[in-house]
Each structure stands twice: as C-alpha cells, then as structure tokens.
Amino acid sequence: MLEIRNLHAAVEGKEILRGVNLTIGDGEVHVLMGPNGSGKSTLSNVLVGHPKYEVTEGSVTFNGKDLLALSPEDRSHEGIFMSFQAPIEIPGVSMTNFMRAAVNAKRAYYGQEPLAATEFLKLLREKRKLVGLDAHFMSRGVNEGFSGGERKRNEIFQMAVLEPTFSILDETDSGLDVDALRIVADGFNQLRTAKTSAMVITHYQRMLDYLRPDFVHVLVDGRIVKNGTAQLGYDIEEKGFDWIKDEIAQ
Amino acid sequence: MTTHSASIYLDLYDQHAALLASRSNAVMNERRADARARLAQYGLPTSRIERYKYTDAAAAFAPDYGVNLHRVCSVSDPYKTYRCSVPNLSAVLRFVVGDVVMPAAPTAVLPEGLRLYSFAEAAAADDAALLARYYDRLARESTDGVSALNTLLTQDGLVVHLAAGTHLKSPLQIVNISAADLDMLSSRRLLIVAEAGASADILICDHSAGEHQYVSTEVIEVFAGEGSHVGLYTLEETHTTNRRFCHTFVEQAANSHVQMGSVALTSGLSRSTTDVVLRAAGARYDGVAAVIADAAEHIDHNVLVRHAAEGCQSDMLYKYVLDGDSLGAFAGKVLVEEGAQQTLSQMTNANLCVSPTARALSQPMLEIYADDVQCNHGSTIGRLDDAALFYLRQRGIAEAEARLLLQHAFINDVLQRIPVGILRERLAMLVERRFRGDLRCSGCALL
C-alpha cells in the first residue's frame, strides 16, 4: 500500500527526516515510536502534504501513485487520513457543514453525485454511534467547546465518515483517560479491515494493548533504527529508548 | 472652509434654486438656506477632517456630476421588471430610482398603522405636520458637509411613519437603484418615525443598473419613540463605479431598541456615517456590519454613539473580510456623557485580510464622563488561520473551498445577530453567493 524510500524532509530549512524507509502492506497496523523530536510528527505531516514541510529527497508511493505529487486534498481523496495530535478549533464552521463539504468533495473526485441530505444525515448518525458522539456536537463549530477527549473522538468519527484506506494516528491516545482511550481504540478497531492500514504514533503500552499492531518501528534522529513486533513496544515501555541508542552507537 | 468640490455644488444650487424649489416639498425648501450656509462653512470633508481621515469625500465629489433637476426616470416600472430571489419577503415595497421616489404599486395595501409616502405625496395636514416636526431635525445639527449637501440638493424622499403600538409582521423593503444614462449625483432622503410601542423592520437594498460613475448621498433620520423597536438593515450590492455616502442619524427615547445591520457585498466606495443618541433611560442600540470587499473596493464605517441618559446599552460588532487590494476602515466612538450612569457598551471590530495587499484600518474609541459604567472595545486584524486551512484540506476540502468556509465562518456571527429569520436567511444566502463569486446583483435585480 505505502512505500517510503529514503525520505528526507526539512522544516524551515532544518533537516528532520534523514532517510526514512518504510513499507506498509494492506491490512497492517504499524506503530511508530521514538523519543521527542525524532521526526514522528514530521513523517506524518509529510505524508499528508502539510505545506510547512519540505521534502528534499526520496519518494513515497501510495497504491502505485506518487504521493508527493498530490495536493493534500487529493491525498485525502486517495484514502489518506490523519488524526491530528492537537485537533484545531474552527469556530463558525459547523461539524455538519464541514462533513458535508468533505464527503461531497470526495464523491466529486470519484465522479459521484453529492449525497442526498437524508442519506448524509443517516451516515453521520451511524458513525457518531461508533465513538459515542452526541448529536448536538454536529451543530457546533468544528471542535468548538469540545474537551480534549471529545476532540480525539471527533477525529475517529471523521475517519469513520471518510473511510480512508490508510490512517495516521498521531498521538491520538495522548490526554485521554482510560475510558476515552477505550472508546477511541474500539472505534478504530471496528474500522479495521483487510484492506485498511494504519500508522500509529504512541508513547503508551495501553495503545499497544488495544491495537495489537503487526509491527513496531523506532525512529531516532530522523531514521528508522529498529524494527520489530509488538514486543519491541513493550520493551521500550519498560526500558526507554536509551538501550536502542546505545545499540546504534555500537 | 469651502472646498473646491463644495463650490461646484454651491454654484449649481445657486443657478437652479428656483427650479429645485418648484419641484420639492416646502419643508425641504425651508431647510436649504441653512444647508447652503453649512456646506459653505464646512465644505466637503477632506481626509484632514478627523471623522473622514479614511475617506476623502471632497475628492469623491470632485468630478462635476449631473443632478437630476428635471426628475427624469430611466426605469419605467420597477415593480414589473424587478425580480427578487426570495419571494414574499415584503408585502410593502417601494422603489427609489436614482433619487426619484417611484409611486407605490397600485396593488399595494399598507398594514394598519403604517404610513409610507414620498415627500411629494405628503398632502394630508398630519403628514405636513410630521415633516415639519422631524425633517432635518437631527441632520441640521451636524457639521458634516456631505449631509449638508444632501439637504441642499434633495428633492424627494420617503417617510415611514408607524403609529403608536403598530407592529409590522413582515419587513418593509425599500429598493434604491442607481440608474442613469450619464455620470450622476443623487440625493436620497429617508425619514423614519416610530411612535411609542411601535415595531418594524426595514430592509434597504442598494442596487445599480448601468456602469456610469454614480455618487449617491443619503440621509436617514430615525426617531425611535418610547418602547419602540426599529430594525434598519442595508444591503449594498452595486457596482465598482458607485460611490455611496450614507449618513444615518438615530434618536432614541426611553426603552427603545434600534438595531442597524449593514451588509456590504459589492460597491466602489462606500462610506457609512452613523450618529446615534440614546436620549432616555433604558434605550438600547445594536449595530452590526458584515463587509465583504475585494479588488479596489473601499468601505468605511464611522460610528458615534452618545449615551446621554443613564441605564442605556449599546452593542456593536463590525466584521470585514478584505481581499484583493481592498481597504476596510472602521472608526467607532462611544461617548458616555456626564450622568449616564449604568451604561453598558461593547464595541468590536474584527478584520480578516485574506490577501497580502488588503488593508484594514481600525479605530475603536471610548470617551467616558461617568464613573459607574461598563464599556469595552476592541479590534483585531488577522489573516486566515493556516492550521485551520490545512485541517480542512486534509479532510479533502479543496483549498479554495476551505478558504471560503473559513471566511464565511468569520462573518457568520454577524448574520446570526439579525433576529428576523427571513431576512437573516436571505442575507446569509447572498453572502454565500458573494463569496462564491456568482453574485452580480442577481439576488434581487432588474431583469
């Protein structure tokens, strides 16, 4: 599904990614771990085409297409979704209007008619249930007055509505209490199929417990330095990152 | 100080005073000598005058515009040729073409308690007495040369009179159409008198037909009686060749409520001056404005609210979305006079500069001579939020559409303050179409 080759990227002239290689297949969940500042969020933002991040070298192929040549909105239509680390508040743009614009933009991309109002409302209703988001959130501005937990649930709700094939969860578990984490993780798990994949950035074992990832990768100083299974995540939870850094030094 | 452009119009008046007088109501003629003296004294304001520092009126009037002395009307029957995209907005509709007030449609039936007539139609003794009592009563106190010019040259206007306790169920609509076969100056006049306990909402639509240079002055005087409610909304959708100077004077009695709402969608230069005096306890004034400007449009709101009695409230929200090389200016002053205790006032001006070359000038002011008041004012000037823009794009919304959503969101809370549902919905629709770039007087336009 996704092939990242020798990816280098910079922010404001400073190189953050220094040759990332990663392959993600259909139906796989990969967890990305690493110390603060190692480039995890940069990698996520590069994949979704954030204009602040400049790719200086390397390639990313998504289902055979040159991902880096696509606009952020076309990447979204092609099936890429990012659950933001800190979902922003957009007062005045109601959740309903936001979702309608997003759903219909994707339909237009595939040459489909806009969804009829009743169908659209039915879709919202179904997907809200998945993460337990009340109806009244739909008339509010995007994330306006939402608590931290509600914002993260809202991210998964949007993911459910847009049905991406590849999702990036950028510290979706941060700032969540145990119950909220379970709701978010359950929501995510229900959306998993043999055709959908994900890259999950997390610092916590709880997320590993819920998601049962296929692979865990460790990013240090802009490179993936270690690959493993879920067990690698548990080792890091127990011992931190220093032992990995020591390994590299040797 | 007589400016050059003022002297053009003083000369024009001197040459045609008799003709003007022969075509106008006596009460208008009675006020001309005073207006002439004031225009000669103050001149047309240049940007050196404090209240005009963002708009050089003298320059705007400098071309020698024609004045419709012979009352020629280029549109024969607007009631038949006019198309409104939202039917049944108003049962009561009057057209003003240039500064010629068109007769009412023959089928028009006014609700009980409402009198709507032109100065020329003011035949009954009661009407004449009303004009004598109210006409130019507020405007004459002004040192503003533009309103003096209006009083000097105006030949007709509309009167809205609401008898005590009258409640209008649907808004009354006045449509101004700037239409002329040559470059033209028109002088419009509107007098609104709401007696005690009366209530009405009035929509004024400013439109244009043709692409001649057009400058209009309009003086609106509003007298809100005790416990009355007047909603006065202006929709401006004209042409970049239009220059509009509208001066609204409002005097409010005890416990009256006036809301003024202004939506500016397209124009060339638009200057709105608003002078409000809260004369007696419990009066409340709300002012809201939504400005959407691009290209070289120049929109300037200048507001003065005088709290002259205790326990009054004023609340103003002016929002501008500025694109292209447009300029949006706001200057607002809340003046709390001595003894006006328990004043509550809020004034906010927020600007969104969408393009790097758009400019916003903002000057909210407070002048307070009482010690037990709550007054706030503030202004912001910002750009579109890049983080919000990217969030929307990540969800598949194209950049242009995302920008549009954010601009609409910015201005939307102004529209939400308009309490009349049908009016709010209609204005919201026009704002959306304006943002999408498919509005050119098509919301309500001449066929």
Summarize the structure.
Chain A has 250 residues and is an alpha/beta fold. Chain A has 9 helices and 12 strands.
How does this model look, in words?
The complex is a heterodimer of chains A (250) and B (447). By secondary structure, chain A is an alpha/beta fold. Chain A has a single domain (2-88, 147-249), classed as P-loop containing nucleotide triphosphate hydrolases (Rossmann fold), CATH 3.40.50. Chain A is built from 9 helices and 12 strands. Chain A has helices spanning 40-48, 72-77, 95-109, 117-131, 148-162, 178-191, 205-211, 230-239, 242-249; strands spanning 2-11, 14-24, 29-33, 53-62, 65-66, 80-83, 90-94, 141-142, 166-170, 197-201, 215-220, 223-228. A 6-stranded mixed sheet of chain A has the order 6-9-10-3-11-12, with helices on both faces. Chain A has a 4-stranded antiparallel sheet with strand order 2-1-4-5. In chain A, a hairpin with a 2-residue loop joins strand 11 (215-220) and strand 12 (223-228). In chain A, helix 4 (117-131) packs across helix 5 (148-162) and helix 5 runs parallel beside helix 6 (178-191). In chain B, strands 1, 5, 6, 8, 10, 12, 14, 16, 18 and 20 form a 10-stranded mixed sheet that branches. In chain B, strand 3 and strand 4 (100-101) form a beta hairpin. With 447 residues, chain B is of the alpha/beta class. Chain B has one domain (4-442). Chain B is built from 10 helices and 22 strands. The radius of gyration of chain B is 21 Å and the shape is globular. Mean pLDDT of chain B is 91; it is low at 441-447.
Topology summary:
The complex is a heterodimer of chains A (250) and B (447).
Chain A: E1 2-11, E2 14-24, E3 29-33, H1 40-48, E4 53-62, E5 65-66, H2 72-77, E6 80-83, E7 90-94, H3 95-109, H4 117-131, E8 141-142, H5 148-162, E9 166-170, H6 178-191, E10 197-201, H7 205-211, E11 215-220, E12 223-228, H8 230-239, H9 242-249
Parallel strand pairs in A: 3-10, 3-11, 6-9, 9-10
Antiparallel strand pairs in A: 1-2, 1-4, 4-5, 7-8, 11-12
Helix pairs in contact in A: 4-5, 5-6
Chain B: H1 4-22, H2 26-30, H3 32-42, H4 57-61, E1 66-67, H5 78-81, E2 82-84, E3 92-97, E4 100-101, E5 114-118, H6 125-134, H7 145-153, E6 158-162, E7 172-179, E8 184-194, E9 199-209, E10 214-224, E11 229-237, E12 242-252, E13 257-266, E14 269-278, E15 284-293, E16 298-307, E17 313-322, E18 327-336, E19 343-353, E20 359-368, E21 373-382, H8 386-394, H9 399-416, H10 421-436, E22 444-446
Parallel strand pairs in B: 1-8, 3-7, 6-8, 7-9, 8-10, 9-11, 10-12, 11-13, 12-14, 13-15, 14-16, 15-17, 16-18, 17-19, 18-20, 19-21
Antiparallel strand pairs in B: 2-22, 3-4, 5-6
Helix pairs in contact in B: 1-7, 3-7, 8-9, 9-10
